[in-house]
Amino acid sequence: MRRKLAAGNWKMNGRTSDLDQIDALEAAHNDADVDILICPPASLLARMSARTTKIAVGGQDCHAATTGAHTGDISADMLIDAGATHVILGHSERRTDHGETDDDARAKARAALDAGLIAVICVGETLAEREAANTLDIISGQLAGSIPDAANGTNMVVAYEPVWAIGTGLVPSTDQIGEVHDFIRTKLEARFGEGVGRSVRLLYGGSVKGSNAAEIFAVSNVDGALVGGASLTAEAFSPIITALDAS
Ligand code: PGA
User: Fold this and answer.
1) Domain boundaries, position 89
2) Ligand 1 centroid vs 69 CA: distance in angstroms?
3) How many domains does the chain have?
4) Which of 47, 106, 114, 242 ranks highest by number of CB atoms within 10 Å?
5) CATH code, domain with 198
6) 76 to each of 42, 109, 164, 168, 200, how far by Cα in Å?
7) Is the CB of 49 under 6 A from ligand 1?
8) Distance (Å, rounded) from C-alpha 136 to C-alpha 144?
9) Whole-prediction pTM value?
């Protein structure tokens, strides 16, 4: 039985005053039977993690090395030191803005697992790739390239995030989501064996909102969501958590 996960990715948003949102979420969902994760900017990690026991906090990236001369970067161990338990890796915005490759994502994920973090590894096709009917090939390559051999259902979550659905308000049909999630499950089972492959949680991400969450959570092999814009306030994220808890 996979435990459901509602994950929020605050991206480059959030100031001290936004920590109030965590208090509101915790109060509203203290009894929720799902895992809740918020990945704030690094500047808020330690203060956010000190503020909540119900909500897990995570980083949005980490370096593949443990320490050293890497200006502006943060290591997996530093994230843990700040109270993080998870880290998002291979997000399409990292791939686009910073030229990160599957190899980069895999090296970072290896470092995250070595440090004891849960890696939330993101995959997803662009619109051009979908229109060229290459979606499953792209996902297959990203899974093979981005996931380290040491991954399993305890230390890794996979997020399917079509690039064209992120921040656009466009959402794939439930059939399209189901096709990719079933495919990812099959791939994980083939690589890691049935038991491990079945235990990995698969999140859908890309324009998830309170109004579309329930139908997305009804899709097979969708174990939760990775939410950007709608995770920034308790008011917007709360209905998503409620829908997941009810699914
Ligand atoms: P969005 O972002 O919910 O704002 O589309 C999702 C993500 O990038 O994780």
Assistant:
1) 5-246
2) 31
3) 1
4) 106
5) 3.20.20.70
6) 12, 9, 29, 30, 21
7) no
8) 12
9) 0.96
